Amino acid sequence: VSWMWDQGKAYDINVATHPDGTRERWYKFERPNIRQDESGRATHIYFAVIDSRKDIDLGNDNHSSKIIALPLVPQRRVQILNPSPPATGGGEIQLAIKAEPDFDPHVEVDVESLSFGSPGAVDFGKGIKASRSEKSGKDLVVTFSGDFAFKPADYCAKLLGKTAKSDLLFSYALLPGHSGPTAILSPRQPAFSTQETLLVTVENFGLAASDAASMKIILTGSDGTPLELNADLPEIQPSGSADLSVKIPQAAIKPGIQYQVEMITPCKGSQPLVTKTKVDSPIQ
Fold first, then answer.
1. Do 161 and 128 form a contact (C-beta atoms < 8 A)?
2. Which residues, at least 6 apart from 150, have a Cβ–Cβ distance to it below 8 Å?
3. Contact 156, 178 (CB under 8 A)
4. What's the CA gap between 268 and 281, in Å, rounded?
5. Is the pLDDT reported for residue 2 higher than 70?
6. Alpha helices in 15-171 (DSSP H)
7. Cβ atoms of 13 and 29 closer than 8 Å
8. Which of the four, 3, 74, 98, 201, has the lowest number of CB atoms within 10 Å?
């Protein structure tokens, strides 16, 4: 998976700030968890907090530990209307800012404040400004023209600006040709159940179900001779797993020998995941 990391801190001890400016200066913030809405957007972040070092927080004292929830500014729903990426050196992108029950883009978007382009450029004030806007039903279509200078690693564009009330407005849009959330498959440590069966559990850490596919497993013993096996991977749901029982040809595995195991797991839209480990074969 090719991750793109934003600059800056995700949070610090000043994030628990009330609208009147009052700060809850907790000593430590831990274990952040995100609450999402039906569109997958982050709406709240939860922390375990404490007002002292853990070793001096004792029973019946004046210290305190709690779980707190902080509201987040949710990103707006947007969609790039272009069927293909803009041409290198310059082009035009039309971006639809979607209306929602609590958000009317016709009156709530400060179009002149909008900046759009590669996230790394927009974050540092180098995005493209809007050239025009028009209504499309309840949605607002904003056109950006210029050299967007998207990098090969960019799979999305970032929108940054203000609302008519000068509140933060932002969003991310998948670039044409890129898919949405994908499966992230990872095999666990394999083990022999018998000399003719290798057990492997494959987990999906992605946000989308995986496709049925074939996983390659290569066993190499002390003599250096590889044994190549293929295992059928079923569709695996997000946060799900599949237990595979891989059949091995009779007498192909020697008892009591340590084998190098190379597992090649397919990853849709990315390079296959190659995992290497060692496994001892069972003693007869």
1. no
2. 85, 86, 117, 118, 157, 175
3. yes
4. 32
5. no
6. 105-108, 119-122
7. yes
8. 3
Cα 137 off chain centre by: 32
pLDDT per residue as tens digits for the range 60-84: 888 888 999 999 999 999 999 999 8
At 36, the amino acid letter reads: Q
Output the six-digit token pair for 87.
């041409």
- Residue 230, beta-bridge partner list: 216
Q: How many helices (H) and strands (E) does the chain have?
A: 2, 18
Count CB atoms within 10 A of the CB of residue 84. 9
Q: Which residues is 50 bridged to in the sheet?
A: 28, 65
CA-wise closest residue to 207 among 269, 276, 271: 269
Distance between CA 229 and CA 242 in Å, rounded? 17
Of the candidates 122, 128, 160, the one whose C-alpha atom is nearest the C-alpha of residue 144 is 128
Sequence-ordered list of residues with C-beta below 8 angstroms from that of 225, at least 6 positions apart, any chain: none
The two structure tokens encoding residue 36: 């999402």
Q: Can you read off the two tokens belonging to residue 1?
A: 């998976």
Cβ(233)–Cβ(202) under 8 Å?
A: yes
Q: Rounded to an integer, what distance in angstroms lies between the CA atom of residue 219 and that of residue 102?
A: 57
CA distance 120 to 273: 27
Q: Nearest 5 degrees, angle CA 18-CA 105-CA 83?
A: 120
In the sheet with 28-36, reading across from the earlier edge strand, the strands are 28-36, 42-50, 65-71
In the structure encoding, which two tokens stand for residue 77, read together?
Answer: 């729903």
Distance in angstroms (rounded) separating the CA atoms of residues 221 and 256? 11
Rg (CA), the chain: 26
Residues 6+ apart with CB under 8 A from 115: 122, 125, 127, 128, 129, 159, 160, 161
Model pLDDT for residues 229-252, shown as the tens digit of each residue: 999 999 999 999 999 999 999 889
